[in-house]
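Interim report, section 4.2 (structural modelling).
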Amino acid sequence: MSTSDQPLQSTVLLNEHIALGARMVPFAGWNMPVQYSEGIIAEHKHTREQVSLFDICHMGEFRVKGANAASALDKIAARPVAEQKNGVCRYNFILNKDGGVLDDIIIYRLADDEFYIVVNAGTRPNDAAHFRKLLPADVSFADESDATAKLDLQGPLAADVLESCGLEKAKLPAYFNCMKSKIGGVDCILSRTGYTGELGFEIYIPADKAVEIWRLLLSKSPVKPAGLGARDTLRLEMGYPLYGHELNTETSPVEAGFGAMLKLESPRTFEGSDALKAKAPSKKLIGIELEGRRAAREGSPVLFNGKLAGKVSSGAFSPSLGKAVAMAYIDSAFDVKNGDELALDAGKATIPGKATELPFYKNGTVRKKL
Amino acid sequence: MKYFTKDHEWVRVDGDEAYVGITEYAAKELGDITYVELPREGSDLIVGDTLGVVESVKAASDVYSPISGTVIAVNKHAEDDPSIINQSPEEKGWLCKLDNIDLIEMDDLMDDKDYAKYLKEIAH
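Predicted structure of the assembly:
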């Protein structure tokens, strides 16, 4: 993914991955496990049916504190922050002045005056600069990424695994909630969030404890490690956007399908809101189910009634559905409805497909009550 | 006898006919194979022609014909369940069977010993 000549960064778990037989690949400037010995499809299915552990240490974590932190973040993030309750996580965006997405993030409200912000690996330096520029002097900002390890425990049995580590199931955070907790005697931030569509948790611990907690979680049956390959097919089946593919500075959150969340009709203003309110979306993100197993890839042209109507943003074989799926941006000039027939130009072949409601995979346990 | 190309295809000569597939190394490099496109039966291939396509979760890759010949059979099992190419790339996961082959073309390919040596070289 990275085209720069910068040396790749490694997470503190590199030696664990190598010992587990991982295949390492460059991703967003990091040397990351794309799969372990069982392969992407087995890891994908294990996450859907049981529980997997992902090394997500490459992502960034910021901490923002101060009596005015809430009102300041409310002017920076696209979705309201001031109203957010303590212990709640909210998926959010930071935008440029034109309304293009600089990053998609999750903002955790840890206390009245304390926020934790989880950002993508590739955008982290620019994100930090953006917050530093826009936050007032009386609000503190710290980039804690280097000192923080992030482990994602994802799958229908994730809560049982935490229980076997001594956490009380009834006290685990509800969907999109977070809390300060302890795992294996180590202080952590624990949130009921993830990127797979399954019940799961994201665990933030000090980087120097990462190996210990990684091994602890992997020692609990039936936890197995899963790589970024499975993470990508899992998120694609859920229709979740991936920064750099569905989201970028040329795309607004409205075009990506998050318009209703932004409450643009309210008088609230934020960085990028003027542009979003002024301009009609130029494209729309849709799901496409392809006929058969052959996948369309990023950049493949999408034809509607024989005319070039858009471009694939992500595409792969869906292990859960047993056929290929894709997400694509369709130009606003075309009125493509769910069920409409499309053709994807994969270079040597044209693959027929159908516009489909997202998510592709509808049996995920992500919202399951504990 | 079995022969190999630098692009990691194999040919197994069986009398006047030959089976063609991708090597264990290629299958492992690709990862889980999710789709395979095979040539039409009856089509004539020349060395280096695109014989088909194999796709894994992460990548798509053309397969080139290691020899010339006429396709007399394709592996329908591999089309229906491409995972057999991962499980048994050089036996059950064969891709197609050719006749009208020319044994002289095998001179340009590697035997198993040379291929094993080649794999060691590219590993460095």
